[in-house]
Amino acid sequence: MSTSSSLPKLPSGLAVPNTPLIAAALKYSRKHTTATTVNHCLRAAYFAVLLSRKLPAKDSEAVDLELIVYSNIMHDLGWSQDHTFISKDKRFEVDSADLARKYLEDSHYSGDWDKHRVQLMWDAIALHATPSFAQHKESEVTLAHLGVMADFFGPAFPGGAITIEEYKEIVTAFPRLEFRDQFLQIMCGLCAYKPETTYDNFVSDFGVAFGVDGKGKGKEEFEKARRATTFPHTLWHSLLACKQYE
């Protein structure tokens, strides 16, 4: 993978905004995550721009491609292995969104970002792994989410929106670099490092299926702890307990 801060135009003509902010964000992502994670984020950015050309617009306003690409590049900062960089008590998506917002606020690029634009960016990152929310939000939030999902589904993306040729072009430009294995280790690592942040989202499914080390360690203990936090064991029991006061 090239370490250049300039993002290429692909042979098909597909390109993403190559602004100074995008170059700086890419450098920041490379500093705090792995080359494998960076390539995943870049593929997501290119897939998002590709899908922005294919999917019907939600409104008449032009889509903010710089916002989408910035969000995609920064969306997995919460995967950092530096535990002084990420939180102990927030979902990785929220860590990523908070870090991306802080970077923007601390940089000299923030002058072009009003409060609404910053909030859209935060939402795009925080909701990128929650389709039941992201798909019903603004176009930028939806497209950032779909770009990430496209990197997992590839040509099997719902509706056939990604062709085999388009998929191969983007993956050739930004190779997977053993992404599958690293993704599993990151998900299970989050279950080990801050399990309470995973219980109400998809990350905990990896802890249940693969344990906290990706090889089955602690599966039963993790599942028992997660089950105790589910709504039938919390909200419903709490409602029953309130009966004595009614």
From TrEMBL:
Recorded superkingdom: Eukaryota
Record domain HD: where: 38-133
Native species: Cladophialophora chaetospira
The protein's name: HD domain-containing protein
PANTHER family given in the database record: CYANAMIDE HYDRATASE DDI2-RELATED
Pfam annotation, one family: HD
